[in-house]
Design a protein that fits this description.
This protein is mainly α. Helix 2 packs across helix 3 and helix 2 packs antiparallel against helix 10. The protein is globular. 41% of the residues are buried.
Length: 287
């Protein structure tokens, strides 16, 4: 008796070709080097944001900032342009790594879910935008301040609110950021970020430290992203773009509450911890 064999539908040739090319790139030494440079860049940015916020919390002057402000701070240091070029390369590498993850549908743990791919796509887009901002700072010396982008956040919210269904779009964006914050909290509490790292290569002391800074850092990011999302939702509901804040504005809001300096200091220390965690990932992350 003849048996009929059923085969899964073949993927279109362009898709297969793109996946094969992606696999080839993902296995190259250059790709791994760029990806690890991306973790260094991310670590520097969050460390700067955290350190500046700590200074505000202890009354040492300055003001809170965001990723754009951190990039401007780097540009103002000795050999700042060289440092910023290296950071821009790292950000490009990180974005490439995340886009490749989205394309292939799996990371180093061979996870293959729609959520993983969408998260990788969103993260890649965010860091590609940061890379573009770094390049813009390099080619333009019009703005030398180290402040954040709170004003641009208001402008972006004002523009979006004027679109058809604008309040809904702004509200959805806020809800997404709240979701991102909750996911950061989940990763911190569940410690599932340990699955992404080469923990077998760590000494017991390093592993304990890595687990602590990873947990603390993810919880701090939960607070920051959650606040940014909540204020976006508030801006949408009240149809007031002035309610929208970026990371710098969210940190400033903490400082203005009861026990503000303590809350800001705690979250700022967590952002520094996340920066150190990211620097550690440059060595231990599975690529």
């Amino acid at each position: 008796m003849n048996t009929v064999k059923f085969r899964a539908p073949a993927q279109p040739r362009p898709v297969q070709k793109a996946q094969l090319e992606g696999e080839k790139v993902a296995r190259s030494d250059t790709f791994e080097w760029l990806s690890r440079a991306g973790f260094v860049a991310r670590g520097l940015i969050y460390t700067i944001i955290g350190v500046l916020a700590v200074k505000v919390a202890i009354g040492a002057g300055g003001k809170t900032t965001d990723q754009q402000g951190a990039l401007k701070t780097i540009a103002q240091q000795p050999f700042g342009k060289v440092l910023l070029i290296l950071v821009a390369i790292g950000l490009a590498g990180y974005a490439l790594w995340r886009f490749t993850h989205a394309l292939l549908g799996h990371g180093p743990e061979e996870a293959d879910s729609t959520f993983d791919r969408l998260a990788a796509l969103g993260s890649g887009a965010a860091y590609a935008l940061l890379c573009g901002i770094a390049v813009q700072i390099l080619v333009s010396s019009a703005d030398k301040s180290s402040g954040g982008s709170g004003g641009s956040t208001h402008k972006a919210a004002a523009g979006a609110l004027g679109w058809p269904a604008g309040p809904w779009l702004v509200g959805i964006a806020g809800a997404v950021l709240v979701g991102v914050g909750l996911y950061q909290g989940y990763r911190g509490l569940s410690k599932d970020f340990l699955e992404d790292a080469k923990t077998e290569e760590m000494s017991p002391r390093i592993r304990t430290l890595y687990k602590w800074i990873g947990t603390f850092g993810h919880m701090a990011r939960m607070v920051v992203f959650g606040l940014v999302g909540a204020f976006l939702i508030k801006a949408a509901v009240e149809y007031d773009p002035q309610k929208a804040v970026g990371i710098d504005g969210a940190l400033a809001k903490l400082a203005h509450n009861s026990y503000g300096p303590y809350l800001l200091g705690l979250v700022a220390a967590g952002l520094v911890a996340f920066g150190v965690y990211s620097l550690s990932d440059a060595r231990y992350r599975r690529i």
